[in-house]
């Protein structure tokens, strides 16, 4: 598996239409070697065009070490990556793929409530498999625009009435208040899907279940931010001070100063540029960290977050 810029070359060994505008891709090493281990909730970077990375959840079985599976929603108004995968990438094609990262880990619990909207089902599939294998109590509430646009329904059918399939054209929006009211008091709530669903479930859980809720976003959340101000970043390992301009990200300022940092999405959703903060107050603008993690201020996403203080000292 030759690597380039932290990516390994994997081969598409299977491609399947899972629903209208949703295709799955099974990836394997060209030499058949085992792939790196991963756990439910993980995602990988895929280079969909030279220098263009997109993030996709691993939605297969972590125990199947020789193959990874991702699923891709075709987004015609999007940036073109999904269209290329749907239209140009078939069985036998090679794709540069990064190592698994996990911002959405499944915690050990006796009870779970899973809520999916559309392509948001993908990170939940291996979680459901793991919860079921562990003998936990769980339920899935799966919404989408129409039944024919909802992927993996056949795969989920084996779980019987633990799975509620609720297409919007048949049932309306997911009844979050009812779902949460019926959920066990100690259940961990996992949700992935479009931003309106995530906003709605965060509001619904704010009063009593905020600590139990975990969400994953495919797009950045709307963040209310005032006018940007310039500030300094001190690289602790070298003592180098870098000026970050009002219209410049920390990531770009460090790169221009010759300090290369890992990055991928550049919109605060993938956590590849997460960096420890030793001193200073962070203006968090990412879509990954929890409210508690933001309050602690121990890490930041260099691509979007800024400083509230005149200087940040970073552990770099």
Give a written overview of the molecule.
The relative contact order is 0.12. This protein is an alpha/beta fold. It has helices spanning 81-88, 124-133, 153-156, 168-171, 176-182, 195-205, 250-256, 291-296, and strands at residues 3-4, 7-19, 22-28, 43-49, 52-57, 67-73, 94-97, 111-117, 137-144, 163-167, 188-192, 213-216, 231-235, 240-244, 274-279, 282-283, 299-301, 306-307, 311-314. Strand 9, helix 3 (153-156) and strand 10 form a beta-alpha-beta unit. It has 3 domains: 3-97, Beta Barrel (Elongation Factor Tu (Ef-tu), domain 3); 111-216, 3-Layer(aba) Sandwich (Rossmann fold); 231-314, Beta-grasp domain (Ubiquitin-like (UB roll), Roll), CATH 3.10.20.30. The mean pLDDT is 93. Its cofactor is FAD. Keywords: 2Fe-2S, Flavoprotein, Iron, Iron-sulfur, Metal-binding, Oxidoreductase. This is Ferredoxin-NADP reductase.
Produce a short descriptive summary.
By secondary structure, the chain is of the alpha/beta class. It has three domains: 3-97, Translation factors (Elongation Factor Tu (Ef-tu), domain 3); 111-216, Nucleotide-binding domain of ferredoxin-NADP reductase (FNR) module (Rossmann fold); 231-314, Beta-grasp domain (Ubiquitin-like (UB roll), Roll).
């Amino acid at each position: 598996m030759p690597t380039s810029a932290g990516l390994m070359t994997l081969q598409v060994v299977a491609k399947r239409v899972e629903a209208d505008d949703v295709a799955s891709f099974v990836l394997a090493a060209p030499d058949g070697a085992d792939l790196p281990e991963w756990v439910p909730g993980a995602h990988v970077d895929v280079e969909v065009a030279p220098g263009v990375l997109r993030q996709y959840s691993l939605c297969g079985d972590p125990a199947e070490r020789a193959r990874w599976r991702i699923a891709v929603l075709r987004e015609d108004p999007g940036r073109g990556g999904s269209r290329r995968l749907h239209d140009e990438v078939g069985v036998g094609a090679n794709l540069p793929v990064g190592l698994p990262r996990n911002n959405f880990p499944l915690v050990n619990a006796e009870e779970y409530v899973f809520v999916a909207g559309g392509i948001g089902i993908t990170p939940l599939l291996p979680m459901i498999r793991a919860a079921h294998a562990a003998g936990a109590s769980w339920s899935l509430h799966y919404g989408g625009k129409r039944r024919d646009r909802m992927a993996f329904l056949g795969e989920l059918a084996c779980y019987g009435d633990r799975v509620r399939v609720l297409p919007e054209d048949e049932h309306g929006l997911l009844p979050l208040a009812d779902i949460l009211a019926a959920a066990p008091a100690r259940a961990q709530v996992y949700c992935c899907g479009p931003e309106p669903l995530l906003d709605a479930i965060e509001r619904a859980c704010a009063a009593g279940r905020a600590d139990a809720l975990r969400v994953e976003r495919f797009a950045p959340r709307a963040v209310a931010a005032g006018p940007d101000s310039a500030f300094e970043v001190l690289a602790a390992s070298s003592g180098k001070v870098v000026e970050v301009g009002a219209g410049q990200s920390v990531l770009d300022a460090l790169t221009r100063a010759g300090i290369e940092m890992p990055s991928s999405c550049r919109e605060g959703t993938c956590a590849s540029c997460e960096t420890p903060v030793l001193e200073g107050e962070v203006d968090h603008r990412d879509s990954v960290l929890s409210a508690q993690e933001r309050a602690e201020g121990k890490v930041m996403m260099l691509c979007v977050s800024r400083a509230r203080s005149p200087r940040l000292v970073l552990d770099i």
